[in-house]
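U., I forgot to send this yesterday:
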Amino acid sequence: MKELIRKLTSVSSPSGREEPVRALIKEEITKHADEIWEDKLGNLIAAKHGGKTKVLLAAHMDEIGVIVTDIDEQGFLRFSNVGGINPQRLVGQRARFANGTIGVFGAEKLEENQKLTLSKLYLDIGARSAEEARQKVSVGEIATFYHEFSDLGERIVAKALDDRIGCAILIEALKRVANPQNDLYCTFTVQEEVGLRGARTAAFGIDPDLGIAIDVTGTGDTPEAERLAIKLGQGAAIKVKDNSLITHPMVKDLLTDLATKNNIPYQFEVLPFGGTDSGAIQLTKAGVPAGVISIPCRYLHTPSEMVDLNDVEAAVRLVVAVMETKLD
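Result:
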């Protein structure tokens, strides 16, 4: 799966501009689905038929980025965020626009005790004037982090593992499933990072009986980290709660039972922040029982997110187990 993950993370596809990664995913799954279509918002949906119960499995395609709001007289770009951005993690990092233009994040001098905010940052694309900058980039264009994929053995580092790793897991599960027992709707969603938007419209159209998102989660296993029970290498995480969702007890029990029955390593996740596509799926129409299979990830929303491939494999196996369990 490393090569698949490398390809998925190398593509630049911020929220609202998911076309490149959608094309790549479509190429990977075409031979493994009964039907494939794109909805009006841009979600890619691959259906595989196998039973009466409709199961929506969602992984979001989009990644965080920055959008140009102004170009000053010296050619420096001012910007706003597209998704959650921590200003303190940007200085010295690089970003890439769709046309290949590269920029470096810099910061203005701060007064004593002044907090670094996005308004104090700029993007330097090497231009010497506003006119030269405008020849490369326009106001309204979006850039994503520019960072290479790094293979550390059992662990990998890349930008956009949130949530290209979920996309890779869903692709691999779709390839592996041999005997689907439910009608599966493997949905690669858009605009999750800016409000769970794609999942909301996809779930409304599919009207599932069960919804499961596949997404990353934070960890508590680095020095002086926030007190979280999640650790890299300890298995797939079964979400109990985050800011968008309290997992339906039936879904939590289903995932726990399947992991135990199939000897899949797992851990429970209680996240005091954030949210996933399941937060939108659960509120569709009259309501949908929903949950999340999470992949522990260090350094979330930075150019160097890290996951353990053992956790990735555990998540693939758990997704396949859901696909092959009759839920009628």
